[in-house]
Amino acid sequence: MNINPIDDLVNEHKGIITMLHIMQKISSKIQKRDNIEKDHIHKIIEFLSNFADKCHHGKEEDILFPEMAKNPENTILINELLGEHRAGRDYIRGMKNSLDDFSTGSPAAYHIAANMQGYTALLINHIQKETKELFVIAEKEIPENTKNLIEEKFEELERNVIGEGKHEEYHGWLKMLAGIYMV
Predict the structure, then answer these.
(1) Are 12 and 56 in contact (CB under 8 A)?
(2) Domains and CATH numbers, the chain
(3) Which DSSP string do the residues of 61-129 spell out, in sequence order?
(4) Separation CA 66–CA 119 (nearest Å)
(5) Stated pTM of the model
(6) What is the C-alpha to C-alpha distance for residues 46 and 96, in angstroms, rounded to an integer?
(7) What is the pLDDT of residue 2?
(8) What is the DSSP letter of 163?
(9) Under a CB-based contact definition with an 8 Å cutoff, are residues 47 and 92 in contact?
């Protein structure tokens, strides 16, 4: 029995939401001038770039959205979500561009914190919109046999984009970072 691709995306949202909570805590600590390990910021940026954007958003943009765009009524919602993906990439780029100069109390640290706050606010709203609107429409409109094909394409994209074992490594990072910042 194949996994429903919508369930796959919902499960990925859970990991992304955990990272958003971690980012909120780190952003607050940066604002208080608490010491944050640069490697933790690096892991967050890699997670967002590869898992959230290239893998998760890639599944939506390259596979799910084209299928849903077959119904022209979905175009406005899809375009809105695509715009939000693009805005998210800008926040990630902002964090990435400040990473080399990151140190406690530096302007780069505050720039990273501001980008984390913007990204978090954007994604919390974005995930709710996908859950309450996009996924509901997808469940209604996409036939089961097409869902099976979509899930196969999702698995192939994940293998090609982030590679074997990387998904598990990212979840290990989530667990580690949550153990440090969510206590």
Answers:
(1) yes
(2) 5-181 (1.20.120.520)
(3) IIIIHHHHTTSGGGHHHHHHHHHHHHHHHHHHHHHHHHHTT--TTSHHHHHHHHHHHHHHHHHHHHHHH
(4) 25
(5) 0.95
(6) 9
(7) 61
(8) -
(9) no
Nearest C-alpha neighbor of 27 from the set 121, 122, 113: 113
Q: Taking the alpha carbons of 122, 164, 67, 93 in that order, is the dihedral positive or negative?
A: positive
Cα four-point dihedral sign 170, 173, 179, 181: negative
What distance in Å separates the CA atoms of residue 171 and residue 162, rounded to the nearest whole number?
Answer: 13
Contact criterion met (CB below 8 Å) for 116 and 28? no
* Residue recorded with tokens 């990204």: 119
C-alpha to C-alpha distance for 58 and 90, rounded to whole angstroms: 16
Q: How many Å apart are CA 168 and CA 175, to the nearest integer?
A: 11
DSSP class of residue 106?
Answer: S
pLDDT over 60 (residue 1): no
Write down the pLDDT at residue 164.
Answer: 86
pLDDT digits (tens, 9 = 90+) for 42-56: 999 999 999 999 999
Cβ contact 170:15 at 8 Å? yes
Dihedral, CA of residue 40, residue 45, residue 49 and residue 55, to nearest 10 = 30
Could you give the percent of the chain with pLDDT greater than 90? 95
pLDDT tens, position by position, 104-150: 999 999 999 999 999 999 999 999 999 999 999 999 999 999 999 99
**Chain centre distance of CA 110:** 22
